[in-house]
Design goal:
Largest sheet: 6 strands, mixed
Helix content: 40-55%
Number of domains: 3
Mean pLDDT: 90
CATH architecture of the largest domain: Up-down Bundle
Low-confidence stretches: 449-463, 470-477
Distance between the termini: 23 Å
CATH topology of the largest domain: Butyryl-CoA Dehydrogenase, subunit A, domain 3
Strand content: 5-15%
Structural class: alpha+beta
CATH class of the largest domain: Mainly Alpha
Length: about 625
């Protein structure tokens, strides 16, 4: 007889699956049929196997969903990102290769191109018949995309662009799909016409013929074996005055006439550049989601192992103790589990906002909404991928020697996910991008207060600064009563920290606005403060996401359980930055100790439910099955 399903499990799984539950169910069913990649394959065999899996994925038509209906898609951008991140439960090389093909390459053609590109290429890209790559990063320029060195110079006599790599640092590097399988590439280059440079634009150009031979003037080399993701054929591209037709320019935002006249619907070069890159924001959102899935998988393995693996005896009973019953072990895994839950809900909110803005037929034309989406995506991608890296490492350690064996999946998961902190934007650079947006919004908010409001605001800031410097615990915003287990208190502490860090950062950077001052030096000196402010903002947003999710659970026992997860997440974040809360008078020493005690208490109370909480992720069993879970 089959045991009845715990109603809490059903309620949590329904909440986690959210708006795109049908998509998740479909992808899980499909993944259940995919045969996992065998360990120990050579790099060439691994690449071949991942390509097979990608074609199997294309045959399901699931990657088609994000493309426009007129080309056989569904226009479901949110669903496509959700299905992509679910691939993180399986082989991460497949996730990345699929992301390059349909997210980056196909996505660039769709959002930067026009009908002349869509009509000719989109269906073949969607079906996996035309494999391509996204050639942005250069050896000498990674995050600084605006100053890439590859050039695309227009020749009006032949109506062609000449794509060239003028120096070694302009070589396109780390390009997925380039070393082995790609036939075309979206190449980002500085557009030059009539002797004038118009900034970075994207060009669609062939790099191999149908037989797989490099096109004339295109030199392709293999990046070779990497620390992970060796099922992805990363390569390097060098162009020696390669000619492509004028129509190769992806011309949604800018075009060049036959006579070389440049035109754009966006006059300002900086604004045009950021608009072009902003349309590709789903790449960052997808990476954050994939990192979340990898963290969930690692936690499912480590918590299931810790619940059954026993070590040392209880002197009272004489029985061996399960690893997960030890407080130190709980602290390794359960706070990470709570934050993984919180990040999942924040990711869901971000995907929904992206879908609202970017789905075909969306009526959102607000440029600020698009820019805010970019900032949110930058911050969440940074925090989510750093969290995944730390969590997978903790899970590996929590499984001891067994966690170091390739057959138990964690070493490969660790190696494959590590680069997530780097691609689709280096995390440190992304947090700086977020800070730029936060400072801009802060300036608008303060500026809109009017003379009286601004004076009052300045007086409050001054009073708080004096209180902090003198050590007097009479801060204007300090809570009169601290209850670490109270949701309102948690929210107040996290949001107050974010607001304070931003306000003090703005004051610290204000001298950079004065003519003659060393702008770089002032900014550089405050960089640690800037990163702290950005991270605090993301953590406040993530907290709001899980707090809202708690209120959405109708099943009372499941809601109570998720509330404990919320509390553990909040207290873990506060505990990690206790120095700030103490230094700035937000917590007393006794209250700080209460936070730590609260983390310990919550670890103990959640321990009996840890297996249920990871089972709620509904990871396909065939992608978890390994000797680690069969320990007796």
């Amino acid at each position: 007889m089959t045991a009845p399903v715990d109603p809490r499990l059903t309620a949590l799984r329904t909440l986690l699956d959210g708006r795109w539950a049908d998509v998740r169910a479909e992808v899980r069913e499909q993944m259940g049929r995919f045969r996992p990649v065998e360990p120990g394959l050579s790099t060439e065999d691994y690449r071949a196997r991942v390509l097979e899996l990608m074609h199997e994925l294309a045959a399901t038509k699931r990657p088609h969903a994000g493309f426009a209906p007129e080309y056989g898609g569904e226009g479901d951008i949110g669903g496509t990102v959700v299905s992509f991140q679910a691939l993180g439960y399986g082989d991460l090389s497949l996730l990345v290769k699929a992301g390059v093909q349909w997210g980056l390459f196909g996505g660039a053609v769709q959002v930067l191109g026009t009908s002349r590109h869509h009509d000719e290429y989109l269906r073949r890209i969607m079906d996996g018949e035309l494999l391509g790559c996204f050639a942005m990063t250069e050896t000498g320029h990674g995050s600084d995309v605006q100053h890439l060195r590859t050039t695309a110079t227009y020749d009006p006599d032949t109506h062609e662009f000449v794509i060239d790599t003028p120096e070694p640092g302009a070589r396109k590097d780390y390009i997925g799909n380039a070393a082995r399988d790609g036939r075309m590439a979206v190449v980002f280059a500085q557009l030059v016409t009539a002797g004038e440079t118009h900034g970075v634009h994207a060009f669609l150009m062939p790099i191999r013929d149908d037989a797989g031979t490099s096109m004339p003037g295109v030199t392709i080399s293999d990046c070779g074996e990497k620390a992970g993701l060796n099922g992805v054929d990363n390569g390097r591209l060098v162009f020696d005055h390669v000619r492509v037709p004028r129509e190769a320019l992806l011309n949604r935002f800018a075009d060049v006439a036959e006579d070389g006249t440049y035109s754009s619907s966006i006059e300002n070069e900086n604004r045009r550049f950021f608009t072009m890159l902003g349309t590709l924001v789903r790449g960052r959102i997808s990476v954050a989601g994939g990192a979340g899935s990898a963290a969930q998988k690692a936690l499912a393995l480590a918590i299931r192992y810790g619940a059954q693996r026993r070590q040392f005896s209880d002197p009272t009973t004489g029985e061996e103790v399960a690893l997960l019953d030890y407080r130190a072990h709980q602290r390794k895994l359960l706070p990470a589990l709570s934050t993984t839950y919180a990040l999942h809900f924040a990711q869901e909110d971000l995907v929904a906002e992206m879908h609202r803005i970017q789905a075909p037929g969306a009526v959102v034309t607000d440029e600020k909404a698009q820019r805010d989406l970019e900032y949110r995506a930058a911050g969440l991608k940074a925090v989510a991928t750093w969290h995944a890296t730390a969590t997978i490492q903790a899970c590996r350690e929590a499984c001891g020697g067994a966690g170091y064996l390739a057959e138990n999946l964690l070493p490969q998961l660790k190696a494959d996910s590590d680069v997530f902190t780097t691609f689709e934007g280096d995390n440190t650079v992304l947090l700086q991008l977020l800070a730029k947006g936060l400072l801009s919004d802060y300036g608008h908010r303060v500026g809109s207060l009017g003379p009286v409001g601004t004076a009052r605001f300045a007086a409050g800031v001054a009073a708080e600064a004096v209180a902090e410097k003198t050590g007097l615990n009479k801060l204007p915003h300090r809570l009169t009563k601290i209850d670490p287990r109270d949701a309102a208190t948690q929210r107040a502490l996290l949001h107050d920290r974010a607001e304070h860090l931003l306000a003090s950062l703005a004051r610290r950077l204000r001298p950079a606005l004065r003519p003659g001052n060393d702008q770089f030096g002032i900014f550089n000196d405050a960089q640690d403060h800037l990163l702290h402010a950005s991270r605090a903002h993301v953590e406040a947003t993530v907290y709001d996401a899980i707090a809202t999710a708690v209120e959405q659970v109708s099943d009372a026992p499941a809601r109570d359980l998720l509330a404990q997860v919320r509390d553990l997440h909040a207290l873990s974040v506060i505990e990690a930055d206790r120095a700030w809360f103490l230094e700035h008078g937000r917590l007393t020493v006794a209250e700080s100790r209460a936070v730590t005690a609260g983390v310990n208490d919550l670890c103990a109370s959640l321990r009996p439910h840890a297996r249920l909480l990871v089972d709620a992720f509904a990871i396909p069993e065939n992608w978890l099955d390994c000797p680690l879970l069969h320990v007796s």
